[in-house]
Amino acid sequence: NGKHFSIRKNITERIVMICPNCKSEMPDDATFCTRCWNVVPTHVEPVKRENMERVIEKYVSMLSLPLVLKIDTHLRFDEKQTKAVEALKEKVKEAEERFGEGAGGFKAHIILGITAFNSKHYDDAVEHFNIAIKLEPERKEGHHNKGIALYSLGKYDEAAECFDKSIKIDPIHAMGWYSKAMALIYSNKLHEGIRCYEKAVEIDPELKKTKFSV
């Protein structure tokens, strides 16, 4: 009948249930009204945010987090980790439906962003990195990874802006300089791109070996 809330009242210190449909009295432990057969809902404990955060952190801990936070957008997961990613995705969705955007946490959104990126769902990756940036704007991982996703979408100017933000946070982040160089070069800003590339290889000479060397 669409009515789902039971009402309790005290009668001479005896607790009884009042059927929300026909208002008949019922025993406190009743599961339905014997007069109109209305089902009495059982009490469900509310989900606590801290409990959901612990579950999310459990899955995060299974997913090579040190590698993720080194900004490896080509991170690969084994079968067990892939299942953990799917479980993490569901738990983050549930947490944010209950408690709002960002309730899944910075690390979870970095992981889900990289997972989306690796599946070539670049727009989804950008969304996850945007949430991560809102949660912890002073960490370079969100900005850099967002830049990589935008670069993959061909949005080179926007990507360069993201790399610039990551460099401001960490001026000796070689991959930040290198990524900015590539974005600028593809934006036809060759001279500025070469300067960024030179800065990158000054910090990390190994970058000279990459296939994008200029």
Mean pLDDT score: 82
Distance between the termini: 72 Å
What does the largest sheet look like? 3 strands, antiparallel
Any idea what the shape is?
Answer: elongated
Overall structural class, as computed from helix and strand content, comes to mainly alpha
Strand content: 5-15%
Question: H/E order of the elements?
Answer: EEEHHHHHHHHH
Model regions low in confidence, pLDDT < 50 over at least 5 residues: 1-14
Our Rg estimate from Cα atoms comes to 26 Å
Number of domains: 3
Total strand segments? 3
SS field, number of helical segments: 9
What's this, in brief?
By secondary structure, the protein is mostly helical.
Can you tell me about this structure?
This protein is mostly helical and 214 residues long. Helices cover 55% and strands 6% of the residues. The N terminus is likely disordered. The protein has 3 domains: 44 residues, no CATH class; 106 residues, no CATH class; 61 residues, Serine Threonine Protein Phosphatase 5, Tetratricopeptide repeat (Alpha Horseshoe), CATH 1.25.40. The longest helix has 21 residues. The chain is built from 9 helices and 3 strands, in the order βββααααααααα.
